[in-house]
Automatic annotation (TrEMBL):
Name by which UniProt lists this protein: Mannosyltransferase
Any one Pfam family match given in the protein's UniProt record, by short name: Glyco_transf_22
Low complexity bias locations: 15-24
Biological process, per Gene Ontology: protein N-linked glycosylation
Ranges that cross the membrane: 45-62, 128-151, 163-185, 205-233, 240-262, 301-319, 326-343
Basic and acidic residues bias: start-end ranges: 25-40
Source species of the chain: Salix dunnii
């Protein structure tokens, strides 16, 4: 016989009664918590004003003080733009209609600013040059500010503030932000796409990525793959349509623009990919570098920020809850792109531009996670002395990075800024009359563009100083201008007989760099040439690596060796 134990009935208490929350499903509760967390983060987030103001100030400084780091920027982008605006300028073999490797759609995008500026300043081409630079800086400000605001809303003010400081002041971002290069345009797209992705707008992120690849630099498609693939997995239909429509419109527009300028049906996007990928390419003709080139270059441009950025994957197990998967997706192109580009024999500093913002983001996440190395994972409010020290170290490391970055920026601007300043002097010597000829020898690769050549100078000519590669030659309107396929161009980097001026006596002005070498220069003949500008220029070969790379007060001037960058005028007889 079973024993029945008496039980007392009790009245239900509040805790026993069903509540609205207990009747809801667990996923709904998690979603509410996520939304409340995001709303809290957004409330505490950095607003738009601070990043727009800070980045605006620094990009203005970059636009006005940046040097030209790569002759490709001049001859493949500034010169075609100058030709579209003024009907004069240098053409490279890539712009020959026979090869058609460069997109005029990218040039037209900058002409939107250059053309009104040329109307506003009809007698001052230098101002037009800087107007385009200000435009580049503005695009960079919008893209980077979006990334900072997105980081702030998703991961808090501290990480976003660190990223903002590095985006403003690291040398790599400072210089790349106002460079007229497709790789810089891909960098803008990377910042904007990453920001939109973190803001929960995957379709917009993929559309921006398509713009960066097709309008900017086709090779950067590899860097945009992580965000694109993850966005498709997250919201396929909307994201696929946004990316496909944007790509199709831009590709059609690119073909139409190419037809307008090259006067034949072709696709510069496909031609470029075919030459470098499908056709094997011959970029090795323009120099090769070792496998650690980008590591060394990355440290020069980002110093300890670059090292910390590379360490992000090592910190991920500690901070996985905070940063996986979204931030990992955002910064993963840093490692994919760096690894892929390091395997290529031909390397150039500008090839890393697309991932520059990601270096700052990854390094910011690592610095922000310093206390997590010592914090008890079961006690998130652990304030033991190692955690407190780690918190103090964070601003110290950031300060070290920013100080070293300023030292690098200052060294480059003051050590290598002479060419831009020397050419500006030409506008004060128009008394020589029209029809003058400006001659440039071994300094052809530092020519700052025809925007710095006044109207009274009828032509710029190269003189033979031993260079045996193919040099740019003026666009020939008689042969068809942009539609021309000049016979002297080739894709083997072989010098043309037409590229050098044979009669040196025809030179009215001469530009050359005079270094302390045992051989005389043309300009050293003072009976023929009168110096009208002489500016110090850092002699890289004879200056110690550390002192030329970073400005160290007092020691920079004392330890480095300088030549003189000279603009000379022929003596009247």
């Amino acid at each position: 016989m079973a024993l029945s134990l008496p039980t007392r009935q009790r009245r239900g208490v509040a805790s026993d009664l069903p509540s609205p929350s207990s009747s809801r499903s667990e996923p709904d509760e998690k979603e509410d918590k996520r939304k409340r967390s995001e709303e809290g983060q957004e409330h505490k987030a950095i607003g738009w004003f601070l990043p727009l103001f800070a980045l605006g100030m620094l990009r203005y400084m970059s636009a006005t003080s940046n040097i030209i780091h790569d002759c490709d920027e001049v001859f493949n982008y500034w010169e075609p733009l100058h030709f579209l605006l003024y009907n004069t300028g240098f053409q490279t073999w890539e712009y020959s209609s026979q090869y058609a490797l460069r997109s005029y759609l990218y040039i037209n995008f900058h002409e939107l600013v250059g053309l009104p500026a040329s109307w506003l300043f009809p007698d001052d081409k230098v101002r037009v040059f800087y107007a385009v630079r200000f435009f580049l800086g503005l695009v960079s400000v919008i893209a980077d500010a979006t990334l900072v605001v997105a980081l702030s809303r998703k991961y808090g003010k501290r990480l976003a503030s660190y990223a903002l400081a590095m985006l403003c002041l690291t040398s790599g971002c400072f210089f790349a932000s106002t460079s007229f290069l497709p790789s810089s345009f891909a960098m803008y797209a990377m910042s904007l796409s990453s920001g939109l992705f973190l803001l929960g707008k995957p379709a917009s992120a993929v559309a921006v990525a398509a713009v960066g690849v097709i309008l900017g630099w086709p090779f950067s498609i590899l860097a945009f793959l992580p965000i694109t693939i993850y966005s498709l997995a997250r919201r396929f239909k909307q994201t696929f349509l946004a990316g496909a429509v944007t790509s199709l419109v831009l590709l059609v527009l690119s073909v139409l623009v190419d037809y307008y300028y090259y006067k034949r049906w072709t696709s510069s996007v496909f031609n470029l990919l075919q030459y470098n990928v499908l056709g094997g390419g011959e970029s090795h003709l323009y120099g090769i570098e070792g496998p650690i080139f980008y590591l060394r270059n990355g440290f020069n441009n980002f110093n300890f920020c670059f090292i910390l950025g590379l360490l992000f994957p090592a910190f991920l197990p500690i901070a996985r809850r905070k940063y996986a998967p979204d931030l990992l997706i955002v910064v993963s192109p840093l490692y994919i792109w760096l690894g892929f580009m390091s395997l290529q024999p031909h390397k150039e500093e500008r090839f890393l531009y697309p991932i520059y913002p990601l270096v700052c983001v990854a390094a910011s996440a690592v610095i922000e996670s310093f206390p997590d190395l010592f914090r008890d994972k079961y006690n998130p409010r652990d304030n033991s002395w190692p955690v407190v020290i780690a918190k103090i170290v964070r601003p110290v490391v950031l300060g070290l990075i920013l100080s070293a970055s300023h030292a690098r920026t200052f060294s480059l601007i003051n050590g290598y800024g002479a060419p831009l300043e020397a050419y500006k002097i030409l506008e004060h010597y128009d008394d020589v009359g029209t029809g003058s000829t400006l001659c440039v020898g071994s300094e052809w690769h530092r020519f700052p563009s025809s925007f710095f050549v006044p109207e009274y100078i009828s032509e710029v000519r190269w003189i033979d100083d031993g260079f045996r590669g193919l040099l740019p030659l003026p666009f020939n309107s008689t042969l068809g201008g942009t539609a021309a396929a000049p016979p002297h161009f080739n894709n083997k980097n072989k010098a043309s007989d037409e590229q050098f001026l044979k009669d040196i006596e025809a030179c009215t002005f001469l530009v050359e760099l005079q270094l302390n070498r045992p051989y005389p220069t043309r300009g050293s003949d003072l009976s023929t040439w009168e110096p009208i500008a002489a500016l110090p220029y850092l002699d890289r070969e004879f200056s110690p690596s550390m002192y030329r790379s970073f400005f160290i007060p007092y020691l920079w001037q004392e330890k480095n060796v300088f030549g003189m960058y000279k603009l000379l005028k022929r003596v009247s007889k």
